[in-house]
Amino acid sequence: MDSMRSLLSTSDFLQVREHKLSNDLTVWLNEDHSQPKIFGAVVVKAGAKDSPNTGIAHYFEHMMFKGTDKIGTIDYESEKVLLDIIAEKYDALADTEDPNMRAHLQQIINDLSVRAAEYVIPNEFDRLISRFGGTKLNAGTSYDYTLYFNTFSPQYISQWAEINSERLVNPVFRLFQSELETVYEEKNMYGDTMASVAIEKLTERYFYPHPYAYPIIGSAENLKNPRLSEMRRFFEKYYVASNMGLILSGDFDTEEVLPILESTFSRIRKGKPPHRDIVALPPFEGREKVSVRIPMPFVKIMALGFRGVPANHPDQVALNIAVSLLNNSNGTGFLDKLTVDHKVMGAMAVNQSMNEAGILGLLVFPKFFFQTYAAAEKLVWKQINRIKEGDFSDEMFQSLKLEQKREYASKLEDINSRAEVMMRIFSQGKSWQDYLDEVTRIDALSREDVIEVAKKYFTENYMYVTKKTGRYPKTILPKPDYSPIIPKNSDASSAYVERLEKIPVQELKPHFLDFEKDAEVVSLRPLVTLYKTHNSVNDIFSLTLSYGVGQLELRDLDKLSAYLPFVATESMSFEVFRGKLQELGSTLTFDSTDSEFLVVVNGFDGHFTQTMALVGDFLRHAKPDDKKLRQIVDEAKVTEKSLFNSSENVADMLLEKVKFGEQSRYLTKLSFAEIKKLKGKMLLDTFSKVRSVACNLHYCGTLSTEEAARQIKQHLPLEEVSIPSNSPYIRDLMTYDKPTVFFMDMEDVTQSIIYAYMYIDPLKAKEDRPISRLFSAYFGGDMSSLMFQEIREFRSFAYQVNARLKHPPLNRSEKPASFVMKLATQTDKMIDAMEVLENLVHDMPERPERVESVKQTIRNWVNNEYPTSRSLSLKIAGFRREGYESDPNKDYLEVIDRMTMEDILRFYRENIQDHLMIYAIVGNSKSMDMEKLSKFGQIVKVTKKDIYR
Predict the structure, then answer these.
(1) How do beta strands 287-294 and 462-469 pair?
(2) Which H or E element spans position 805?
(3) Which of 397, 799, 815, 914 could bridge 185 with an S-S bond, Cβ 3.0-4.6 Å?
(4) If DSSP codes are grouped into helix, strand and coil, which group holds residue 281?
(5) What is the gyration radius of the CA atoms in the chain, in angstroms?
(6) First vs last Cα of the chain: how many Å apart?
(7) Among residues 813, 834, 851, 13, which one has the least CA distance to residue 416?
(8) pTM of the full predicted structure?
(9) Are 117 and 193 in the same domain?
(10) For residues 697 and 712, is the Cβ–Cβ distance under 8 A?
């Protein structure tokens, strides 16, 4: 693998220019011209650990989208007078325990917020990002750092730098009261997740007294008592230039960009963050027993928690190898073997490093009914001790090092994944060269290094965790009795926009797929097509066999894809077969979708021939093993029990029933009784059927098309293909003759999940497809959409807010479309949220000022989502399968460019306005007014058997 080390040190795409601006802000620049986009991020080395249990770091992240003294306001001086009083009142609220006084202060804050909103331009920051080429605007708060990032078109680099530096100079905490309610919704959403409270309890026990012990979002009590003054102090303390990093990866010229960054980001305040004293975690004392409650009967869960290592620790690389001896992608680890041999139902190892501490743990699922925790733990310790005693072959050790290097190199292949690594590495205080040198550190590892770290960290001092069936009491943050904060200037622009518009922009047209040039296409035999794209990044190949049949046609495909990783061939045992793959640095995985069955192979081109020989042997001679089916049965049992503990899962099942009736995937799947009757031969017979259906192969690597085709034809059983594909397989949509509310009652949930479904007749005009895309973005596409602003931003009635209009493929254009809207909200806000949604659907506001912004959003998406070399051919084949002869985005943009508000309104009036809305709602009936709910349609109460087979 000397070639990989050489590649990592010399390839242009891996070169990162590290630079300091005049204010000491660190800049990392990585040029990559493979896609017409730039990923830009600001990394702040401050997170939840710097405001433990208060939620301030997370609050602040939310408020960074509200603008500045220049962005998001028509008159900041007048607005500031009110905002200063609001901040004072929040401090008074935090100091007050008297409920009457608290209610009085909250009402004053609400009145002031309503007045301050008269000066606000909501979502102007988001709109500016979109207006100047941006997509995927987001942020995230971790324990150690906070990220602000998005993707944008290269011609807007100056505007991006101006906007994103401006947001860090003087952020303004406007619309805080409504955003606070949004955070309440987020907190309640986490509380409805099956194991979230148990994980919180476990995290607290594991990390105490370190600040990692507390949830990032903060405690419910602290969320009720926010202090804007503390948030301002947090900003002043940590948001200084020397504590921040600017990450750019993509299509730009470094020398041209540096002056732009100096003139913009150097405005950020100089300063040094305060010194942090790291809180040392005490060692566990012997076997410390802990139990947590999870509402999943019959399923046993056990965990062993050891002290791990923080990022940058010299033992980290060796510990990664030790953990891969327990679990790895080929399923050859010692814990993997316990699962494969069905000695436990499941087992996995976790090794996660934060900046100041690490988690090293094992998660184990004992077998149903009769296996005890003690018996499962004994088996696990036996596997751990094998590593400590050096009971592993040198071949396995070397193959795991090779696997680590392949995974390492794969993360650096494209702009997005490389930028993610850059953000993480910077936040850990490393240089880019430190990261590149890790390959050398992997190479230098010896067996003795791994044995020593296993002895050092897998000790007899650990946390022993078992699960009890039950729930924790919920802390519900109720709906405040506030007036909606509805700004009057939702379509206005600040004076700051004029400054941005004066910045010159080079005209660059979106990059469209060229079906003839972007991928070489070769017919290997009738119904078998090879798509080849070149990998200019490294010597790792990917080969995907996409058979044109999916779960909607063959009901047992999901079980087949789960079963195949556990079996081997007639001539090789599981251990031998998977071991040979691993020694080559290759992996073999399986997946199924509605319309495809996928066989995915990854590895090194230098071992392509040997890998194809192994894969071909498996495809032709996979050997049934009924013992391995016990694992599939147990997994199905766990899935069935966990599905109905998640309101999101239940809502998905209910929506499937509402949209497709008896064709719901949850009603056509194999029942548990049928799964128990499965035999290995039955599943392999299904595998034979799959391999007879038309197949597209997608190879991305360094081999020539001729050589790849020769090896594939020589080794893979392509002669079995004889049946044309029916994909994409389209189910019939349900129609209804009256408004109906399908309701699934779930006790103990705080949030309600609401889907609104609308059947749309087949579109008549060719231009209606692109217009519908414009309408969908205008109505419910992003933070500037009607739904987001009217329901979340102005009224805080929901946390999740979105809508999607979905068409059938072009070659199935005689089929209808569907329009689905989603809300996730506290039950006490549900009726209010639904009323606003109904008004939007049946009397949609006209905002002609937004149309150009929505059109620009679509242009941005087309440009910024140009695929990577590995996904290029998959995208082309997907479009062809749907009936397109060229990139449909080109035609879409030509139509959208000439559309106006009148075109959106015409589409809306013809296809949306007077159509029935059918609701699918999951919630707690005890917390809602069912009589009020009935005004939205006849209530049909749904049971488990109605939506799940």
Answers:
(1) parallel
(2) strand 800-806
(3) 799
(4) coil
(5) 28
(6) 50
(7) 13
(8) 0.93
(9) yes
(10) yes
**CATH for 227:** 3.30.830.10
Per-residue confidence band for 5, with pLDDT thresholds at 50, 70 and 90: very low
Summarised one tens digit per residue, pLDDT across range 751-762 is 999 999 999 999
Nearest to 364 by CA among 389, 403, 334: 334
* pLDDT, average across residues 788-812: 91
d(CA 758, CA 937): 14
Q: What is the dihedral of CA 397, 399, 402, 404, to 10 degrees?
A: -60
CA separation for the pair 608, 602 (Å, rounded): 9
Asked whether residue 235 falls in the same domain as residue 383, the answer is no
| Beta strand 587-592 pairing with 751-760 | unpaired
Same domain, 430 and 348: yes
Estimate the crossing angle of helix 574-583 against helix 608-621, to 10 degrees.
160
What is the residue whose two structure tokens read 């003690």?
A: 374
Distance CA 143, CA 100 (A): 36
What pLDDT does residue 476 have?
67
Nearest-angstrom CA–CA distance, 291 and 177: 38
Q: What are phi and psi of 152, to 5 degrees?
A: -150, 160
Domain shared by 465 and 489, yes or no: no
Does one domain contain both 266 and 405? no
Asked which of 464-478, 494-508, 874-888, 928-942 is least confident by mean pLDDT, the reply is 464-478
The answer for 24, left when phi > 0, alpha when psi is -120 to 50, beta otherwise, is: left
Q: Does the pLDDT of residue 189 top 80, yes or no?
A: no
- C-alpha triplet 578, 584, 590: angle, nearest 5°: 50
Is the domain of 930 the same as that of 810?
Answer: yes
What CA–CA distance (Å, rounded) separates 425 from 411?
13
Total domains, the chain: 3
Q: Name the pLDDT band for 178 (thresholds 50, 70, 90).
A: confident
pLDDT digit string, tens, across residues 279-319 = 999 999 999 999 999 988 889 999 999 999 999 999 999 99
The pLDDT tens digits for 686-713 are: 999 999 999 999 999 999 999 999 999 9
pLDDT at 714 over 90: yes
For range 138-145, the mean pLDDT:
97
Backbone angles phi, psi at 135, to 5 degrees: -140, 165
Tell me what the pLDDT averaged over the chain comes to: 94
Query: How many residues does this entry show for the chain?
Result: 949
CB 418 within 8 A of CB 11: no
- On whether the CB atoms of residues 631 and 342 are closer than 8 A, the answer is yes
What b/e readout covers 52-73, taking b as 16+ CB neighbours within 10 angstroms? Answer: bbbbbbbbbbbbbbbbbbbbbb
- For residue 359, report the phi and psi dihedrals to the nearest 5 degrees: -110, 125
Q: Predicted confidence band at 477 (pLDDT cuts at 50, 70, 90)? A: low
Instruction: Tell me the sheet residues that pair with 697.
Output: 530, 545
Token look-up 């020397």 returns 242
pLDDT at position 782: 82
User: Based on the domain organization, do 314 and 257 belong to the same domain?
Assistant: no
Q: Are 687 and 589 in contact (CB under 8 A)?
A: no
pLDDT for residue 9? 45
Longest dimension (CA), the chain: 81
DSSP 849-913: GGHHHHHHHHHHHHHHTPPPHHHHHHHHHHHHHTT-SS-HHHHHHHHHHT--HHHHHHHHHHHTT
Distance CA 366, CA 376 (A): 6
Enclosing domain of residue 875: 740-947
Cβ contact 762:813 at 8 Å: yes
Angle at 544 between CA 538 and CA 549, to 5 degrees: 165
In a shared domain, residues 903 and 925: yes
Is 532 within 8 Å of 708 (Cβ atoms)?
Answer: yes
